[in-house]
Design a protein that fits this description.
The chain has 45 residues and is mainly α. Helices cover 67% and strands 0% of the residues.
Length: 45
């Protein structure tokens, strides 16, 4: 049987995951709200 407490003690986060998180969170991506706001601005002109 697996001893989950022992397995958790051995756990070490992957460096690739940290790099991926940084890349994702540091990007300013356009979302639906940005698109809708731009459409509203353009329709008001």
């Amino acid at each position: 049987m697996i001893d989950f407490d022992e397995e958790l003690k051995k756990f070490k986060p992957s460096m690739e995951i940290d790099d991926a998180e940084d890349a994702i969170y540091n990007r300013d991506l356009t979302d639906m709200m940005d698109i809708l706001q731009e459409m509203l601005r353009e329709s008001g002109n």
